[in-house]
């Protein structure tokens, strides 16, 4: 490789704001999206993958080394695209092409051509355009032109490799734009998902859709014949769509012994115009609990549920059975799902709007009893190695699998008998369908493809047809088990009618594989490859791929293998005969899985700690480097929030022979992930662009030793140029900090080593300390909008950067719901007692260091405990700012409600005034720093001390310091929109004009 290698578009520019908008919107897309075929955790949005792949495979036409043949082809296809698509639709973007089209010299205006390609990429990221012929055809032509211009043989396509293929977003989009694909994963579930999308759909197309529809209808009829008696219809013809159950315990109150249904909420529907709730009736004389359905209830008609945080309160005697005793009662009953109490039936009738709610009747109970007996009969008749009901062990995993704590010891125990009867019936019917297809077709892979698609419909039903689902009282139906990445314990659950009906039945589930097939028939014509193998031992030969695009696991973020076993045990029973190598073992492979698991389960995963993960990741990236051509390009997606995690990832990439050449944040993360609360979690995934070391800068320069002084001189200049670019695209806060790593690392990693004048080698960790410092200083200029921040003391600089890191760019004004945070019902409520704003200690230390601040000297502002650093809320600084002596000052009230907190302020301030710490003019003693004085004013406003605030600002002259108002304005922008601090600082700012400032 020579220095003539042109940069790819992704190494120069990327319209990340527009791409991110399409990625966010995609989360609400359902019909035809591959996510609807089957769940896989942490799947990347197709929009982001499509854009990144195009920008990675296409060279930058404005680069001096870009082959002319690509420029000619790109100009031709951009003209055609603009004429056929943009002009006809009246797109604003068309104006950009007018001058370009009228240019007589095809090799001029290369920068304009770059912008044209970037516009195309941004528009193509839109889901609505992903299957439009003009977009798909243009992208494939550009991919082919780039491949041949960069040295690829005519008639061949560039090979894109993804060794952590997971849910298949990256390989699917690579096929869409005309590349060849090799997707691999260790886990059989994503391997099968990718076989459907990458192999079966492009190979069989409409024929596959027709057969899936045909045999889906056959299974529907057969299942209805076998299972309808277990889901009896109502006398008026209404079809039950859900049965609502509550696990029960026996009240342990003295002399009580009532059977207690565990109900977290009595609401059945909160939809406007269709408000429905339960009235819980405790009958002391009869020693029982009954229910009554109330329509359009008043607030006084709806009490709380019986279960809260794992304990249960008896409506008859008032005794609360604690969580330890609840567990003790449920354990011998295997979680209590199969002997739970049905308390409501939800029905649907064609032609009627909405759902109807009624109490259970005798036929409902009898249907369950018949199903239980039928299941026992079938289990007794089963012969062979594999049981019909999944009896594989369900492990206990702290914070992930909490259901086993209550007795769910096998995967099958998560289901009721009727659910098991229905699912095992469907499993058998899928196998029967596969045998009939195979008997009538000479193409064994085709029958395998149809059976696999049908099996995924059963697997999808299992997610909605178990005892850990919930009924959504927004009248939207059943919430799946995997609404988050865990198997929690739920007290009341919804059982779907798996036999028939418009929702959560076989008919409903079978629509999803059909939708995915039909959405992608025209968009994907190239057949890819999906195989099972470890990323540390790839089967491809050296230098065989042109691009390595992958989204690897992040330490312990998701325990993929253990989660997937929920589906694996069902898929194994459906597909073991057609995929014997994938389902040879009872459970999915875990020993080689590249995840940090020791924290989840130290008994099974003792050696799989953070160090083990980093070693495996280095091996995987080295193997990927081996497979990639020296002229190729790589892109590794990373979204870890800790500086230590980033350092380990970057070190692994550099040790594996990669050079970082860019980084782009694309909004792909959920804003309210469970781990995102009050911490510097990323809203974006950072796409690290990299090249094999030998291909960057030419074979001569790469052996050069970098001079430490030159590197340090270039670093702030690069960050200074990059940070405003990110701000233009709306990238701020923690996203911006980590997005600066690419440009910074390109400086350092272009050399074989970097040395100081003394000859001492500079290691990555030392360089990254300088990177964090440069980023912090540049970010501070962004926070203060270019104004000189040097006039502020270190506490103000640190506070501004801290809040900017956490909250800059926030868009939500509300608190996350229980479903969004995914709390288990037996878990303590979110740690609301921990006020303040938390950063990882190492992140806080590096930010402070870059600003010339020292955490150890700011103990009145920052509290460090273990690996976390907490910026104290303003309320907790009252004692420091107003007390005569900190040791003598009264403790601040920690009451949660604002009104109570303000009373606590008043008491604090009155005692401070009595203690003589207010100064001679009846105003508080001025704080030492500008930040102290701003916080003092906020506290006075919060406590309603308007006159003291006036004297403080006017008589004491605090308001005449322009720095005071400038810092107040910055803090108003940075504090969370729903925080007390935001309200208080805005209250102070509102006094400015009235006081004559």
Count the DSSP helices: 30
Shape, per Cα inertia axes: globular
Instruction: Tell me the number of strands.
Output: 26
Average pLDDT value? Answer: 85
Structural class: alpha+beta
From the N-terminal CA to the C-terminal CA, the straight-line distance is 65 Å
Order of the strands making up the biggest sheet: 17-2-1-18-19-21-20
The radius of gyration over CA amounts to 31 Å
| Major beta-sheet overview | 7 strands, mixed
Q: What is the strand content?
A: 5-15%
What level of helicity do the residues show? 40-55%
Unreliable stretches: 98-107, 670-682, 697-702, 811-834, 884-904
What does this structure look like?
The structure is a single chain. The protein is an alpha+beta fold. Among the domains are: 1-156, no CATH class; 882-997. Helices cover 43% and strands 13% of the residues. The protein contains 30 helices and 26 strands. The chain has a 7-stranded mixed β-sheet with strand order 17-2-1-18-19-21-20, sandwiched between helices. A 4-stranded antiparallel β-sheet has the order 13-12-3-16, with no helix packed on it. The protein has a 3-stranded antiparallel β-sheet with strand order 6-7-8, with no helix packed on it. Strand 12 and strand 13 (356-358) form a beta hairpin. The radius of gyration is 31 Å and the shape is globular.
């Amino acid at each position: 490789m020579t220095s003539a290698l042109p940069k790819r578009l992704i190494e120069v520019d990327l319209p990340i704001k527009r791409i991110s908008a399409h990625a966010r919107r995609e989360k609400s897309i359902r019909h035809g999206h591959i996510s609807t075929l089957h769940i896989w955790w942490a799947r990347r949005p197709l929009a982001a993958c499509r854009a990144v792949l195009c920008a990675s495979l296409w060279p930058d036409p404005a680069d001096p080394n870009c082959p002319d043949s690509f420029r000619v082809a790109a100009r031709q296809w951009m003209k055609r695209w603009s004429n056929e698509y943009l002009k006809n639709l009246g797109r604003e973007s068309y104006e950009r092409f007018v001058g370009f089209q009228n240019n007589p010299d095809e090799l001029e205006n290369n920068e304009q051509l770059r912008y044209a390609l970037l516009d195309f990429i941004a528009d193509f990221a839109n889901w609505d355009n992903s299957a439009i012929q003009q977009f798909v055809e243009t992208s494939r032509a550009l991919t082919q032109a780039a491949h041949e211009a960069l040295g690829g043989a005519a008639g061949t396509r560039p090979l894109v490799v993804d060794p952590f293929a997971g849910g298949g977003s990256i390989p699917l989009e690579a096929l869409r734009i005309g590349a060849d694909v090799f997707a691999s994963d260790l886990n059989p579930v994503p391997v099968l998902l990718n076989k459907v999308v990458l192999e079966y759909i492009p190979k069989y197309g409409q024929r596959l859709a027709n057969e899936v529809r045909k045999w889906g209808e056959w299974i529907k009829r057969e299942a209805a014949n076998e299972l309808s008696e277990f889901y009896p219809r109502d006398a008026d013809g209404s079809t039950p769509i859900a049965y609502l159950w509550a696990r029960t315990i026996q009240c342990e109150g003295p002399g009580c012994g009532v059977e207690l249904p565990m109900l977290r909420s009595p609401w059945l529907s909160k939809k406007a115009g269709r408000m429905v709730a339960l009235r819980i009736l405790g009958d002391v004389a009869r020693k029982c609990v009954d229910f009554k359905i109330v329509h359009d209830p008043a607030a006084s008609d709806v009490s709380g549920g019986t279960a809260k945080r794992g304990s249960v309160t008896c409506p008859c005697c008032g005794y609360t059975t604690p969580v330890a005793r609840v567990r003790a009662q449920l354990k011998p009953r295997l979680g209590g799902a199969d002997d739970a109490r049905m308390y409501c039936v939800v029905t649907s009738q064609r032609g009627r709007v909405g759902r109807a709610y009624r109490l259970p009747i005798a036929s409902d109970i009898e249907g369950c009893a018949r199903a239980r007996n039928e299941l026992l009969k079938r289990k007794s008749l089963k012969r062979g190695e594999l049981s019909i009901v999944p009896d594989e062990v369900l492990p206990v995993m702290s914070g992930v699998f909490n259901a086993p704590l209550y007795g769910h010891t096998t995967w099958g125990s998560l289901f009721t008998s009727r659910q098991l009867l229905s699912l095992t019936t469907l499993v058998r019917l899928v196998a029967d369908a596969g045998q009939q297809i195979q008997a009538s077709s000479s193409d064994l892979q085709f029958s395998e493809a149809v059976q696999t698609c049908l099996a995924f419909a059963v697997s999808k039903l299992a997610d909605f047809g178990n005892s850990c689902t919930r009924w959504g009282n927004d009248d939207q139906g059943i919430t799946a088990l995997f609404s988050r990445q865990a198997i929690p314990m739920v007290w009341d659950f919804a059982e779907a009618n798996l036999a028939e009906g418009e929702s959560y039945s076989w008919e409903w589930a079978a629509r999803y594989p059909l939708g995915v097939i039909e959405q992608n028939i025209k968009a994907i014509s190239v057949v890819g490859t999906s195989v099972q193998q470890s990323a540390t031992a790839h089967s491809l030969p050296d230098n065989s791929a042109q691009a390595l695009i992958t989204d690897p696991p992040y330490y312990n973020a998701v325990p993929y293998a253990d989660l997937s076993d929920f589906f694996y045990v069902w898929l194994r029973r459906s597909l073991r005969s057609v995929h014997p190598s994938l389902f040879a073992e009872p459970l999915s492979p875990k020993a080689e899985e590249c995840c940090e698991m020791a924290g989840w389960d130290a008994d099974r995963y003792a050696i799989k700690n953070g160090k083990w993960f980093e070693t495996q990741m280095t091996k995987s990236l080295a193997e990927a480097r081996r497979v990639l051509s020296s002229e190729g390009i790589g892109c590794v997606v990373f979204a870890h929030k800790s500086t230590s995690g980033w350092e380990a990832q970057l070190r692994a990439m550099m040790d594996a022979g990669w050079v970082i050449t860019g980084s782009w944040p694309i909004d792909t993360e959920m804003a309210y992930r469970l781990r995102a609360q009050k911490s510097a979690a990323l809203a974006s995934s950072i796409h690290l662009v990299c090249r094999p070391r030998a291909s960057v800068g030419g074979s001569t320069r790469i052996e050069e030793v970098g001079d430490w002084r030159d590197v340090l001189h270039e670093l702030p200049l690069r960050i200074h140029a990059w940070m405003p670019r990110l701000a233009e695209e709306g990238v701020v806060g923690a996203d911006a900090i980590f997005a600066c790593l690419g440009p910074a690392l390109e400086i350092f990693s272009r050399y074989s080593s970097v040395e100081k004048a003394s000859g001492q080698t500079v290691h990555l960790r030392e360089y990254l300390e300088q990177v964090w410092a440069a980023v912090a200083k540049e970010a501070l200029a962004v926070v203060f909008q270019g104004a000189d921040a040097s006039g502020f003391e270190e506490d103000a600089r640190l506070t501004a950067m801290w809040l900017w890191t956490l909250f800059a760019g926030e868009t939500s004004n509300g608190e996350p719901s229980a479903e969004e945070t995914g709390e288990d019902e037996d878990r303590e409520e979110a740690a609301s007692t921990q006020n303040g704003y938390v950063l990882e200690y190492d992140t806080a230390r590096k930010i402070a260091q870059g600003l010339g601040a020292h955490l150890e000297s700011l103990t009145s502002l920052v509290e460090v405990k273990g690996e976390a650093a907490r910026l104290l809320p303003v309320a907790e600084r009252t004692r420091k700012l107003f007390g005569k002596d900190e040791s003598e000052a009264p403790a601040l009230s920690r009451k949660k409600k604002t009104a109570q907190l303000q009373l606590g302020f008043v008491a604090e301030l009155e005692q401070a005034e009595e203690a003589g710490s207010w100064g001679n003019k009846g105003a508080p003693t001025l704080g030492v720093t500008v930040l102290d004085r701003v916080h003092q004013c906020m506290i006075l406003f919060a406590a309603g001390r308007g006159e003291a605030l006036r004297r403080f600002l006017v008589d004491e002259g605090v308001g005449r310091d322009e720095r005071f108002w400038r810092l107040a304005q910055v803090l108003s922008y940075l504090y969370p929109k729903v925080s007390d601090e935001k309200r208080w600082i805005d209250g102070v700012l509102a006094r400015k004009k009235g006081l004559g400032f």
